[in-house]
Amino acid sequence: MKVLANDGISESGILALEKGGYEVITTNVAQEQVANFVNENNVSVVLVRSATKVRKDIIDACPGLKIIGRGGVGMDNIDVDYAKSKGIHVINTPASSSESVAELVFAHLLSGVRFLHDSNRNMPLEGDSNFNGLKKAYADGVELRGKTLGVVGIGRIGQATAKMALGLGMKVIAADMFIPQVDIKVEFFDGQSITTTIVSQSLESLFKEADFITLHVPAQDGYIVDEAALATMKDGVGIVNCARGGVIDEIALIKALDSGKVAFAGLDVFESEPKPEITILMHPKISLTPHIGAATGEAQDRIGTELAQQIISILG
């Protein structure tokens, strides 16, 4: 049987599938050619990340398709219910990239509180001619320790983020309409651990209480963070989104950054991805990454292996 990993797959995933008797194709097929390629090559399994979309047109055009797999968590680029109605298995890897995304959240948080995103732009330009000026410009950093992190969505990635926050000495609060409370176990290198319980609270109270806010929710019909929500937040709040573009109103965010209501933002995802707005890309108070939350070697190894295990379990 043939597997098309159209957005790539780790070497460990390829080896696991080949060991199970599958042929793995890693050719990157253009979106409009996916259906033809699947049919011409008798592909049974299509694996994607976030780039390739598997919509109703591809599902209808590919009667031989048995599994659609998403390397990662969110499946908004797949018509999941429709695929299932056609008897196609739809799989993902919700646990594999949690730590990688959580670490990126803290990369953005630490960058924001110490101005790394901006100093790394300006030091190459002015470091030799305006060293003392830059030193003064970036002298008002703050510590994360002792501050309150508001986690919007306390699923796997939210929990991994909460663990790191607790390790840094932060207070963690959460809002999640589906998870009333969760036990967070922070494990240390020597086998010791501590466990604390986080009880979900209202989104409105989280916005008012948090010094920093991180979003861990699927794609939404509307904004979670809009102009009204921003108005209720603390002055000088920091906001990070490593979840999905479209959950923050970027126009309202720019306005809040310009006014000083929001001290900084860290964005890995964007409303108009893959062509983020130039006002976002050029803003000195935004730390930017190009949707790389799960893009670590460790996470990709886990994702590839987990997809292979699921495929072999389903198809034998």
TrEMBL record:
Where does the record place the D-isomer specific 2-hydroxyacid dehydrogenase catalytic domain? Answer: 7-314
CDD domains from the UniProt entry:
PGDH_2
Q: Which domain of life is it from?
A: Bacteria
Which residue numbers delimit the D-isomer specific 2-hydroxyacid dehydrogenase NAD-binding domain?
A: 107-293
Q: What Pfam families does the database record attribute to this sequence?
A: 2-Hacid_dh (PF00389), 2-Hacid_dh_C (PF02826)
What one GO molecular function would you report for this record?
A: NAD binding
Q: What are the protein's UniProt keywords? A: NAD, Oxidoreductase
Protein family according to the UniProt entry: Belongs to the D-isomer specific 2-hydroxyacid dehydrogenase family.
Under the heading PANTHER family, the entry gives:
D-ISOMER SPECIFIC 2-HYDROXYACID DEHYDROGENASE FAMILY PROTEIN (AFU_ORTHOLOGUE AFUA_6G10090) (PTHR42789:SF1)
Entry protein name = 3-phosphoglycerate dehydrogenase
